[in-house]
């Protein structure tokens, strides 16, 4: 378990700094008084995206998964309003299909779906990217946890 | 281990991927997994390592979701100094 956290301490600091700056920007932009449920949901979504993008930027362009993640987030933000209705309709159909196929899907395919950019890699690249992605995810979780613990004191 | 060989390799390029390379990478993944049995590297199959990796990544995604929700609720109600947080994180 300790090997996960020993790597990338510089990345961890870069991630923490970016994430905290984004959080403080969100706090300043929020309305006064108790937020509504809708606001909390929207903010939860934003915080989630910000955490992944902060980690992807902290890792930089040296990894295929971070590059793929940055592209995905940028494209999603760009086309979110325009294609929202179109995507929702086609997504419903696709979700139903996925449940039927998931039992026959190989483990490699499952991994390709979980790791950003995994679809276009060979098996060696995929395994390497997975290892790095997992360590960065664990770092991300740990930093978010300590921030949340600090806030809740 | 035969399941690994029967899996179709994508046509990535001219270099042939050896089984040793894959074994090596799978054992590296295995060491990352927080499990009791990750020391006994010979007895764990590659399929199990991949399955555990997928489960691990999924659970990490769920934790990120839960923490985002928790932070979102905390964000509205607190007023803390960021310098203290960064200092805290740097000294870990």
What labels describe this entry?
heterodimer, A: 153 residues, mainly alpha, 81% helix, globular, B: 92 residues, 4 helices, elongated, transcription regulation (chain A), IBH1-like N-terminal domain-containing protein (chain A)
Tell me what you see in this structure:
- Chain A: It holds the Pfam family IBH1_N.
- Chain A: It comes from Hevea brasiliensis (Para rubber tree).
- Chain A: Keywords: Transcription, Transcription regulation.
- The complex is a heterodimer of chains A (153) and B (92).
- Chain A has 153 residues and is an all-alpha fold.
- Chain A has one domain (9-152).
- Chain A contains six helices and no strands.
- Helix content of chain B is 65%, strand content 0%.
- Chain B contains four helices and no strands.
- In chain B, helix 2 (19-32) runs parallel beside helix 3.
- The model of chain B has no long low-confidence stretch (mean pLDDT 73).
- The chains are: A mainly alpha (153), B mainly alpha (92).
Chain-wise SSE layout:
The complex is a heterodimer of chains A (153) and B (92).
Chain A: H1 2-6, H2 9-29, H3 37-59, H4 64-101, H5 107-114, H6 123-151
Chain B: H1 2-6, H2 19-32, H3 46-77, H4 82-90
Helix pairs in contact in B: 2-3
TL;DR?
Chain A has 153 residues and is an all-alpha fold.
Overall mean pLDDT of chain A stands at 80
Broad structural category of chain A: mainly alpha
Shape of chain B: elongated
Mean of residue pLDDT of chain B?
73
Instruction: Tell me the Rg of chain B in angstroms.
Output: 20 Å
Q: How many helix segments of chain B?
A: 4
Largest sheet of chain A: none
How many helical elements of chain A?
Answer: 6
Report the portion of residues of chain B in β strands: under 5%
- Total number of domains of chain A: 1
